[in-house]
């Protein structure tokens, strides 16, 4: 109980980095672009009925889910390893939305494996739209971590 009411730890350095550049922000553009691209190609299939777009969606959603898992692993290690990050509610808000996004994206991809075109209506399109919404919320909350809480921007010269 003594912990409540104490100021948040100031130190929020990155621990998962290449030459002090945090790995998670380097990876997240891939799932963001692939998953939003997946929604765009679902819509292209809807308007053209060309199966090229159904196969494109299958690949985009699959690559988005895979790259999202890789980004999520980097983010989770950072979250658990750094005291100043794991003590912030904002980090856990971002984590919960990101895990929902990964769950939706994996189900979206797996459901398309047998029949890329046949599953787009209605579930594929619904899951791609939900995924795009979750990408927006997860990205927004991730941005808040960096720009408001300075997560991953501080110097790594403190012990946990
Ligand atoms: C699943 C677990 C995840 C965890 C625990 C997590 C954690 C974090 C952390 C700690 C940061 C602060 C920067 C850093 O220290 O690296 C961050 C930033 C961010 N995250 Fe995540 N993340 C997760 C997944 C995702 C996913 C799937 C996406 C997007 C599809 C995402 C999008 C972002 C964005 C856009 C930023 C801001 C990057 C910047 O502007 O520099 N995160 N996340």
Automatic annotation (TrEMBL):
The keyword Cell inner membrane does not apply. Keywords: Membrane, Transmembrane, Transmembrane helix. Residues 20-153 form the DUF2231 domain. Pfam families: DUF2231. It comes from the Bacteria. The chain crosses the membrane at residues 27-47, 59-80, 92-111, 123-141. This is DUF2231 domain-containing protein. It comes from Pigmentiphaga aceris.
């Amino acid at each position: 109980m003594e912990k409540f009411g104490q100021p948040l730890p100031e130190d929020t350095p990155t621990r998962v980095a290449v030459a002090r550049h945090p790995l998670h922000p380097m990876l997240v553009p891939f799932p963001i672009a692939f998953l939003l691209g997946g929604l765009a190609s679902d819509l292209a299939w809807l308007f053209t009925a060309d199966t090229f777009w159904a196969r494109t969606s299958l690949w985009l959603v699959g690559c988005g889910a895979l790259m999202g898992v890789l980004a999520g692993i980097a983010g989770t290690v950072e979250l658990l390893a750094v005291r100043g990050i794991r003590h912030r509610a904002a980090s856990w808000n971002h984590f919960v939305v990101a895990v929902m996004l990964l769950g939706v994206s994996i189900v979206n991809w797996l459901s398309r494996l047998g029949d890329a075109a046949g599953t787009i209506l209605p579930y594929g399109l619904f899951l791609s739209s939900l995924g795009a919404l979750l990408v927006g919320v997860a990205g927004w909350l991730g941005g808040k971590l960096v720009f408001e809480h300075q997560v991953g921007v501080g110097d790594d010269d403190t012990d946990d």
